[in-house]
Amino acid sequence: MNKKLKQKIFVTGGNGFFGSNLVKKLLSIGHKVISYDNNFRGRESKFNNSNNNLKIINGDIRDKELITASMRDCDAVFHLAFINGTKYFYENPSLVLDVGVKGSINTIESAIENNIRSYILASSSEIYCEPTKIPTAEKERAIIPDLKNPRYSYSGGKIISELLTLNYFRELEIREIIFRPHNIFGPEMGFEHVIPDLMKKISLNSDNFRNKKSNINIQGTGNETRSFCYIDDAIDQLMLIFEKGLKSEIYNVGIQNEISIKELIFKISNILGIEIGTNASELRLGGTIRRCPEMSKIRKLGFSKKSNFEYGLKKTIEWYTDYYKNFRN
Questions:
Q1: Do the Cβ atoms of 9 and 77 come closer than 8 Å?
Q2: Which of 56, 294, 304, 319 has the fewest C-beta atoms lying within 10 Å of its C-beta?
C-alpha cells in the first residue's frame, strides 16, 4: 500500500476502544473513514463529529444488506467488531459466536462484492490458548482445549474468522491480513479487562482512593504473566501492517515483555500512592497462566519504536481514577 495514497476506509467496531483509536489515527493522516458500530460497547461521543472525513453508521454487524451498502466505494476494511469481555464469554457464548461468525462472513462477502483492495481482520492472542512456546510466534497452533467450556466461544469465533478470511480471499487479488493483538490497554478501554477490573476493586476497597491501604481479591496467585501493550504502540504497529503487510500473512501486535499481575499491581500501587494487598484465588476454568507474543515478524516490517508501557499505564490509571471519583462522589 502506498502510504501517501489517501483512501476511504471502512472500520467495523469503530466506536469501541481499539476501533476509535484506529479511526482517529486514520483521520489524522488524511484518510476518509466510515465507522460502523451498533454501540454495544462503543460510543459516538469519542469523535469530533465536525470532521468531514468521518461518517458514523449505527448498524449491526449481522445486517449484511446494510454492511454491503455502507461499504460501497471503500478501498479497505478493518474488521474489528466482535463481542469482547470475559463475562460475555461465560454468560452469553451463543451471542459471542453469532456476532463473530456472521460478522466475518458478512464483511468478507461485502468486501468481495465491493472489490475492496485490503481486508484486515482483528483476531486475538486468545487463539493460542495453551501455546507450546513462549514468547509465542504466529505459526503457533490455534487450539480449543474444551469445546464445552463457554469461555472458548470467543477464541473459537476468532479461529473461525481467521479460517474464513484466509480461505475466502485465497484465490482473489484482495490483500487479506490478520493481526493478533496481545493485551492492549489504555484510557477508556472498558471495564471487563485486567487493568480496569483491578482499578474497580482498588476503588471499592480504598473508599474511592481516600485510604492509603487497599486489599483486593485477584484471580490466580498473581504470578500469572501478560505482555501489556499501550494502545498508541498497538496502533503504530497496525499502521505499519496496513502499509507494508503482505497478503495472507498473520502478525502479532503487542510487546515482547512479560509482567506478572503482582508486578502490575505494584506499579499501580506506586502511581496511586496506595499500599495494595492481594488475596489469591483459583483461576476461572480456561484462564491463561502466561501470554507473551514473539515480535520478530513485525520487526522485519520495520517496527523499532520503544514501548510506551510506563507512560500508558500512568495515563490509564489517571483516567480510571477520575472516572471512579466522579462516579462515586
A1: yes
A2: 304
